[in-house]
Amino acid sequence: QVELVESGGGLVQAGGSLRLSCAASGRTFSHYAMGWFRQTPEQGRDLVAQITWSGDRTSYTDSEKGRFTISRDNAKNTVYLQMNSLKPEDTAVYYCAVRNRPDLGYTRYDYEYWGQGTQVTVSS
Predict the structure, then answer these.
(1) Residue 109, CB-side half-sphere exposure with 13 Å CA sphere
(2) CA 21 distance to own-chain centroid
(3) How do strand 18-26 and strand 2-7 relate by DSSP bridges?
(4) DSSP label at residue 108
(5) What pLDDT digit, counting tens, does each position of 88-106 carry?
(6) What is the pLDDT of residues 38-84, one digit of tens each?
(7) What is the Cα–Cα distance from 119 to 91, expressed in whole angstroms?
(8) In the chain, what's the furthest Cα-to-Cα distance?
(9) DSSP 3-state assignment of 76?
């Protein structure tokens, strides 16, 4: 059992930046991935970025490449999402998730544990 707690969301103006944090507690082990998803009424819950335990593999959607960066601190069981050059279309509830497999997943069904979400709103 893993508990995930997100923080760092808020209201920002277009072009601004936010850094989201997700702290994991409970049962953890080294061979897992952590990822960020975002959910909107229009698109549902989709993958934003993910990273393996070692940090040697990451993935991003095309719309976020060059603007978002995912990283992790294994000692703290924490994953971060640095979001720069934010756009109104980035507005969503952002969820942290854990995948208990030694590789990456690409859908919400590939991830087993979820946080409660944090709201990110980007004004124009």
Answers:
(1) 0
(2) 8
(3) antiparallel
(4) G
(5) 999 999 999 999 887 889 8
(6) 999 999 999 999 999 888 899 998 777 799 999 999 888 899 999 99
(7) 8
(8) 41
(9) helix
